[in-house]
Amino acid sequence: MSTRFLSVSAALGLSLAATLAHAQAPTGKVTVVTSFSKDVTDPFKKAFEKAYPGTSLEVQNRNTNAGVKFIEETKGNNQSDLFWASAPDAFEVLKGKGLLQKYAPKATGIPEKVGSYPINDREGAYFGFAASGYGIMWNERYAKANKLPEPKDWADLTKPAFYDHVSIASPARSGTTHLTVETILQGEGWEKGWRTIKEMAGNFNQITERSFGVPDAVNSGQVGVGIVIDFFAFSAQAAGFPVKFAYPTVTTVVPANVGIIANAPNKAGAEAFVEFLLSTPGQEVLFDPGIRRLPVNPAVYAKAPAGYPNPFKDAQFQKMITFDVDKSEARTAVVDTLFDQLISFQLNDLKAVTKTLHEVEGALAKKDNPKARALVAEARDLIAAMPVSEAQASGAELRGAFTGGSQKGARQAEVEQQWAAFAKERYAGAKAKADEALKLAR
Amino acid sequence: MALALSRPVPRSHLSPGQLLVAGAIAAFLLLFLVVPVATVIYVAFTEKGTGAFTLVNFLDFARTDLFVRSFWNSVYVSGMSVVWASVFALPLAYLTTRFEFRGAALIQTLGFLPLIMPPFVGAVAMQLLFGRNGTVNLLLDDWFGVKVPFMDGLNGVIFVQSVHYFPFILINLSAALRNIDRSMEEAAQNLGSSGFRLFRRVVFPLALPGYLAGASLVFVKVFDDLATPLLLNVKDMLAPQAYLRVTSIGIADPMGYVIAVVLIVASILAMWASAAAMKGRDYATVQRGGGGLAKRRLKPWESALAYGIVGLILLLVLAPHIGLFLLSIATIWSFSPFPDAFTLAHYARVFGESSIYIKNTLIYATLAGLIDVVLGTAIAYLVLRTRLVGRHWLDWAATAALAIPGVVLGIGYLRTFYGVTLPGGTPLAALWIMVVLALAIRRLPYALRACYAALQQISVSLEEAAENLGATKTRTVRRVVVPLMTGGILAGFISSFSTAAVELSATLMLVQSNSDAPLAYGLYVFMQSPAGRGAGAALGIVAVLLVALSTFASHLVVERSQRAKGAAQ
After folding, report:
1. Taking CA B512 as the corner, what is the angle to CA B510 and CA B513, rounded to the nearest 5 degrees?
2. B453, B485 contact by CB (below 8 A)
3. Name one Pfam family in it (chain B) (predicted).
């Protein structure tokens, strides 16, 4: 069979399908598995059902991880039409397992990239419908009561003023935080990036298990500053909370996505929903005060409320870094586990040494002491030390340890214990040096 | 007033009816508990790469500092939670059951409320009141310039858990205390015992089955609970470690399941230990509370003291609900002792949607509760009154459900039942009845412990008497055993019903459509956004009220039946 024949028949099939789809308006129940809250899904449900009379959108709320597991476990008898969530890596997992149906959206006016991130999956398995950037959110009342300066960049969060005031979600649990960590690593380089992250981490008050745990804690004033995705802050502002938000210099905007699940029971309905999300009326729903995400169609911004960020125009988004998706994918599990083993589960030790270092530097600012300064530098190097090099992180050996049963090799638990022991030893060494420096500096 | 001095003597021959019941229960547990869970956790015993059977993963567990630390943290937190839960529960239970105490039913109901702490909102409310910038600390900071870290680290977990789970002790201990006939106390008083000695030497020992049933539940529940530590950002405990691993994307590591196995084994050990502690003693009395409870009158100053203590305890244990209520009528509550202003808008927002959630919750929780007490009574009877080989396995299997993370059960159900299609083409797992079964399995241990304790207090000689008078075994169970167990069965139903009403982790996996969703799911959906916090709290209050009203109604029924029993004498 020649390729020509194939392409002809494919084209015929396509046009036939198009005629059928045209003749048959989508109807019935469209089931979408989503991690988005009611504030986001309700306006879309209303607008979609109005645009396509005869359809009803059935929203199944599950957090991203549970949603992925659900689709995976039910694939033999799939009843869901769409998966709709933020983190692109969740879609990558689904795509890797062949659980997403390829599709070519007909909507026009959507550019190839937002910031420096491609909006749609290259292979057409999922499509960006809204952009979001990562940054720093803080509670104004808390900042005033604790005399915190306004944070502008990641480096600000390493300063003594922010000790015990910062919160982040664990990147292993929150796809959005994972991208934030990866952005810093790609922007500043592996070694320097981890150094920044660990210096920030020394100021953490808590590492939450859910993405929403961070904005929730900032909103209620339990912590002052959170590292979050922008719409958490914007929608909190819209709800009336006294919070502010800033994009740091090293960040990136990434799209939130939608994808059609393979063997969708209502394929026509699923396609209609994708088209609706990308259409002008669908994009405008994003301006809803409870949603507040950035449309991917630049033309839609004409109707945006005053002061709405525009990633296609605003200068701050133009200098954002390019994000290498392949690099990120190759080391996802390693980066997340490193974060947990070196930071999450060693947080008390890391905080203790950071606190002492802040004290030493406070003392040194008043009266310099070169010997103490050298000790501080040594302690900081010990903290920054990594058990794994950049090349190893995406190397085959470590990847094998994290892929479970497929091949023999190092077990994940063994590797983790090595890393934890590495960090524990270094932090203890750093603490000893910091204590010594404090004696000298006083 | 004869104490049955002989140990209960299980009859040696089995009736076919008993065998049938045992077989049915075993099949139920196998199908809806053992098989689904096994499909998920067998990974713990396989070798990486080959899939061959191995125990090396357990060796890894013992070699990893984090897991060892987590294990001991869990043991410590569970133990301390039992201590504090007992401190809260003992006065409430004793004062309301053994004394003339106005409002006893109300206090019992209020004291029960903490168990109904809807997911997410409970911890949010506690943070708003006791967190590092909660009401109490902001006021303390204002007035005295100090802050108390109530909610930090393991202490925070102990605090929240003992408030949350102490009703298990309260409800089981109260049921046991009600079952002690006044003749026991009168005998002791005639022999010269009184005051605290009377309580310590006579009343409390007779109620020990109830206390142990509650305390062991608290221990195991705290040991296996993952939601509270996670919401307080405490990760170095065992259950959160298992959960974090099982649900993280891309991690196909067996350690999560290894931890689940460790949790299951530890829970069964704890239950076994509490059973062993009771071994060789007999708590059964022939006289049932029928002689009327010895309810003593309190002197005025005693009464004032008692009300003071009860009031203080209630204020503390109801703090989450007070916080929740404030949150549900608050506009904005951020870094301030109290909300900025109040509104009813959140209730208006949930009003339209909540009726379907309420209906579903009532149906699911009632069915789950009924399944649980039927199974619980049957298992307790088989274990305590027959010599069936392997009868303890039924007990242990049912108890193991306590240690299984809801998400593991949820995934197991999807794996086992989603491939089974009904004639209409819908998968079996998509039916709402599966949610009910998952809830029933998860809450079965609560009802089982209550029924077990109730049966332990009944002397076997009552049944022997009935049988000597010509009653068949079935008739004896129906006319003698079950009526005498009523209090315990009801305690079991209430525990199962009310906790099933707010369960989320398995539900979140299994709910297939909004029209089949219970309250906890609706609440979860609201609580994921800043604007939904108040609405979620309002829905939480609706859930609490719903369960509280049901509980209050059942307390009234118990009181009435006891009064009727007393009057008949």
Report:
1. 140
2. no
3. BPD_transp_1
Q: Is residue B14 part of a domain?
A: no
* pLDDT tens readout for residues A106-150: 988 999 888 778 899 989 999 999 998 889 999 999 999 999 999
Q: Quick one: closest CA in A to B336, which residue?
A: A221
In the prediction, which pLDDT does B120 show?
Answer: 67
* Chain B interface disruption, residue of A32, A216, A235, A424, most B CBs within 10 A: A216
Q: Residue B13: inside a domain, yes or no? A: no
* Chain B neighbors of A65, CB-CB under 8 A: 247-249
| CB contact B513 to A (< 8 Å) | yes
pTM: 0.83
Task: Identify the residue among B140, B253, B326 best suited for mutation to test binding to A, counting A beta carbons within 10 A and taking the highest.
Answer: B253
Residue A4 has pLDDT above 50, yes or no: no
Min Cα separation B253/chain A (Å): 5
- The pLDDT of residue B293 is 56
pLDDT, one tens digit per residue, over A275-320 is 999 999 999 999 998 888 999 999 999 999 888 888 888 877 777 6
Mean of all residue pLDDT scores within chain A: 88
Mean pLDDT within B296-322:
88
Q: Total structural domains in chain B?
A: 1
Q: What residue numbers bound the domain in which B169 lies?
A: 20-568
Residue in B255, B427, B521 nearest the CB of A77 = B427
Q: Which domains does chain A have, with CATH numbers?
A: 3-132+253-318 (3.40.190.10), 134-252+326-441 (3.40.190.10)
Q: Are B97 and B555 in contact (CB under 8 A)?
A: no
Determine which of A136-145, A361-370, B129-138, B554-563 has the lowest per-residue pLDDT on average: B554-563
Put simply, the answer to whether A412 touches B50 (Cβ < 8 Å) is no
Do residue B414 and residue A74 have CB atoms under 8 angstroms apart? yes
**Taking 60 as the threshold, does the pLDDT of residue B249 lie above it?**
no
A407/B49 CB distance under 8 A: yes
Residues of B in contact with A332 (CB under 8 A): 250
CATH number of the structural domain spanning residue B287: 1.10.3720.10
Question: Angle of helix A190-201 relative to helix A370-384, nearest 10 degrees?
Answer: 110
- Average model confidence (pLDDT) for chain B? 84
Interface of B with A in 405-444 (CB under 8 A): 407, 411, 414-415, 418-419, 421, 426-427, 429-430
Q: Which of A68, A238, A417 sits opposite B65 (nearest CB)?
A: A417
Q: Which residues of B touch A216 (CB under 8 A)?
A: 124, 530, 533
Is residue B5 a part of any domain in this protein? no
* pLDDT tens for each residue of B412-464: 888 888 878 777 777 787 788 999 999 999 999 989 988 988 888 888 888 88
- Determine the residue of chain A that is closest to B504 in CA distance: A62
Q: Tell whether ipTM is more than 0.95.
A: no
Query: CB B334 to CB A241 under 8 A?
Result: yes
Chain A residues touching B43 at Cβ < 8 A:
405
Residue B399 inside a domain? The answer is yes
